[in-house]
Each structure stands twice: as C-alpha cells, then as structure tokens.
From TrEMBL:
Major place of residence: nucleus
Gene Ontology, cellular component aspect: nucleus
Domain ETS: 39-118
Swiss-Prot/TrEMBL GO biological process terms: cell differentiation
Lineage: Eukaryota, Metazoa, Chordata, Craniata, Vertebrata
Molecular function per GO: DNA-binding transcription factor activity, RNA polymerase II-specific; sequence-specific DNA binding
Pfam families: Ets
Keywords, comma-separated and alphabetical: DNA-binding, Nucleus, Transcription, Transcription regulation
Subcellular location: Nucleus
Protein name (record): ETS domain-containing protein
Length: 278
DNA sequence: GGCGGAAGGA
DNA sequence: TCCTTCCGCC
C-alpha cells in the first residue's frame, strides 16, 4: 500500500505508516491550504518540528517537549509567516504563555527555552464534532466496555463528554489515539509521515509488527492508529498514564469539546483545575 | 528568562 | 478568538 502523501513538509512516496507515529493532518496542514484559518502558533511550531527544522527549534528529551534553540530565529520565522516584521522572542513567548491557560502547552521548569506540548489537549481542542455517544454506542463496538449506566438515557453525554470520554481515555494507549476510539476518522487521505523527529515513538520493525496485521484492523482505521498499533507493548509501557498526560485529561475531560474547541457540559471542571501536568 | 495584565488589531 | 505590543515585576 502506497500513498503519495503531500504536505507542507513535502512529498512522501512511501508507506504512510513508515517510520514514526503520525500526527493527524490538521497538525501539519499548511497555513495557506484552502479552507484553513490563519496559522496558529502551536501549528507553526509543529510544522517546524515535523520538518526537522533543528536550527531554530527541536524536540527535547521528553515526550512532547521541545527546545527553542535559536529564539530570535524562531521569532523571525514566525514573524515572516504572520507578516509581522517586528516579531521577537519576547512577543512570541507571550503568545506561548497564552497557551498555558488553554493547556495546550506548558513550560518545562528549570530548562531555558524549553516547553512541552500537551498533545492530549491538542487533540481534544482540535477534534470537534465527533458524534454523540449514543450514536457511537449504536453504530460501532467500542474498544472499551460500556457500562449500562452510560448507555441509559440520562447518563449519555450530549456531545461526547463525561464518563465515556474518561473511559475512552483510560483505554487509550496513547492520547493521539483518542479520536480513533471515538470512532470518527480524521481527514487522513493525505496523511504523511513525520520525518523522525517525534520523541520516543519510532515505529519499531519488531517481529510480529508486519503489515499483514493491518488487515485485521477495523475498516476505516486511520493511518495514525495503524502506526500507533505498530508500537510494541514495551514502548507504551515506558510511558505511564501520568506521562501521557492522562491524569490531567481524565480530570478535565468532563469538559465536552465540541465545534471549534468550545467547551460545554460540567461547569467548574477543568477551568478551575490545576495548571500543572506532571 | 519568564510571567501575566492590559489594550488593541484583524 | 488569537495573537501582538507594551510593560512592570520577579
């Protein structure tokens, strides 16, 4: 199976599950692509990181962590992208700090120019419009047991929030897989591999991880899921739920995330939560 | 360096 | 809404 995967990074006439776990397309969708809104900073950073733009920015030693190696250069690149010739690191970092409250990013304390993505939140806020839980229950078997209390009318959340997401998260081996547990495919026809700059997640050429296994995957199973499933159990075992950010997301996931990342549902959960992830 | 308030622009 | 700009504080 081949795909001519194209993106802001380039063309990849290679199997899309090739060497690394994949980000969904939205994570790398170029700013100038039709229908996209103006590029967001986190998106721009992921683009640079995915490209392996190691001069200005690179992945750090921990999951989701990245290091700004040349702050002024990064600011210049960001300024060029946004048409802001007077951009500097001070301003860029202010924009980064606004992500703290949104829980998209947090600062790695004690390490200069080092920040950490909260990918699980990134998935949630950018994964709008998944179907209501009752549809999920009716249409497709979920990869985790559904409690009677969750099926019975009153407990079914209106837009995928609440206990169901909590439980999906708990059953997810990786936050990036959450959308697939929720059974709505991301727009993946043009998926592409990230060029080997994602920390900890090389798809191993381990015995038993042959492509033949893919045939056993559910129809419509997205490439990212496929790539993730290539990870050996011990790879997952190296990261605790805490490290995946599951603690945080489980705690905050009573928030329902709908269109445009709007939160609905339980008030007083999430916004009032703590700001740390570790 | 890093933080966050405030005002303002698109 | 998502920054950009400026600023005072630590």
């Amino acid at each position: 199976m081949q795909c001519n995967c194209s993106s802001s990074i380039g063309s990849f006439p290679s199997p899309y599950w090739s060497r690394t776990v994949l980000f969904p397309d939205w994570a790398y969708k170029p700013a100038w692509s039709p229908g996209s809104r103006q590029v967001q900073l986190w998106h721009f950073l992921l683009e640079l990181l995915g490209r392996g733009e190691s001069g200005a920015i690179g992945w750090g030693g921990e999951w989701g962590e990245f290091v700004i190696r040349d702050p002024e250069r990064l600011a210049r690149l960001w300024g060029e992208r946004k048409g802001k010739p007077h951009m500097n690191y001070d301003k860029l970092s202010r924009a980064l700090r606004y992500y703290y409250n949104k829980r998209i990013l947090h600062k790695t304390k004690g390490k200069r120019f080092t920040y950490k993505f909260n990918f699980s939140k990134l998935i949630l806020v950018n994964y709008p419009g998944h179907p209501p839980c009752h549809q999920l229950i009716q249409s497709t078997p979920l990869p985790f047991p559904v409690l009677p209390s969750e099926v019975g009318g009153a407990r079914v959340p209106q837009c995928g929030g609440g206990a169901m997401i909590d439980r999906a998260l708990q059953s997810a081996t990786h936050p990036l897989m959450l959308p697939y547990l929720l059974q709505k495919p991301l727009p993946f026809p043009h998926s592409h591999p990230v060029q080997g700059h994602f920390p900890f997640l090389p798809v191993p050429s381990a015995p038993g991880s042959s492509y033949s296994n893919l045939r056993e995957l559910p129809a419509g199973c997205a490439p990212a899921t496929i790539a993730a499933l290539h990870l050996t159990p011990n790879v997952w075992a190296t990261k605790s739920g805490k490290e995946w950010g599951l603690n945080n997301i489980t705690r905050t996931s009573s928030l329902c995330v709908g269109q445009g990342g709007k939160e609905c549902g339980d008030k007083g959960v999430g916004r009032g939560g703590t700001d740390h992830f570790e």
